[in-house]
Amino acid sequence: MRYREIGPLALAAKARAEALGLEFHWYSPTPMCLFNPIAHALGNKGCAACDGLIHVAPDGRVLPCSSFRPEESVGDLLRDGFEAVWFGEKAQFFKTKRQAPSGCRSCDRFALCQGACPLYWREMGCEELEHAAMRMEAAES
After folding, report:
1. Within this chain, do residues 61 and 38 fall inside the same structural domain, yes or no?
2. In terms of residue numbers, what domain contains 73?
3. In whole angstroms, what is the distance from residue 84 CA to residue 77 CA?
4. What stretches of 2-141 show up as alpha helix (H) in DSSP?
5. What are phi and psi of 66, to 5 degrees?
6. Same domain, yes or no, for 7 and 43?
7. Each residue of 49-63: pLDDT tens digit?
8. How far from the centroid of its chain's Cα atoms is residue 61's Cα?
């Protein structure tokens, strides 16, 4: 599913949950230029890789989040220790959000969504961002 399709589906799921008396929680990071979860009372959903979220595999490898492949670990707690992993260059790459698309890093909303999910962009490409940037520029002029 593309980011541009998420908004209507998330809002429909929220409405259905509320109609059933259920509390709806939205966890997926989304780029603010394509869907603003804050505007719909879903909270801020930015990339939390090596920031508010990590995954430690049974063999000690630390992944930026549980969706990354084991070979993409930022270090090994059992071999390298916490300090070397947590303050290492690989973890810093994610903590400083250098994995975000360049168009995201120059956006005034970047502090909120932090470029959304880097795995999404890797798999789907950044074409949606280019279209969103053009729409935002047109709206500002």
Report:
1. no
2. 55-95
3. 8
4. 3-19, 77-80, 82-86, 89-95, 102-105, 110-113, 118-124, 127-140
5. -70, -10
6. yes
7. 998 889 999 999 999
8. 21
Indicate whether 91 and 104 sit together in one domain.
Answer: no
Where does residue 31 rank: exposed (0-12), middle (13-18), buried (19+ CB within 10 A)? Answer: buried
Handedness of CA 130, 134, 139, 141 (dihedral sign): positive
Q: How many CB atoms lie within 10 A of CB 103?
A: 16
Q: What is the pLDDT of residues 27-76, one digit of tens each?
A: 889 999 999 999 999 998 889 999 888 999 999 999 999 999 999 999 99
Cα–Cα distance between 115 and 101 in angstroms, integer? 7
Question: Using CA atoms, how far apart are residues 43 and 40, in angstroms rounded to an integer?
Answer: 8
At 39, list the tokens.
């505007």
The structural domain count of the chain equals 2
The neighbour count for residue 3, using CB atoms within 10 Å, is 21
Residues whose CB is less than 8 angstroms from the CB of residue 116 and which lie 6 or more positions away in sequence, other chains included: 3, 29, 30, 31, 46, 47, 100, 104
Beta-carbon count within 10 A of 97 CB: 20
What is the reported pLDDT for 69? 94
Confidence of residue 132 (pLDDT cuts 50, 70, 90): confident
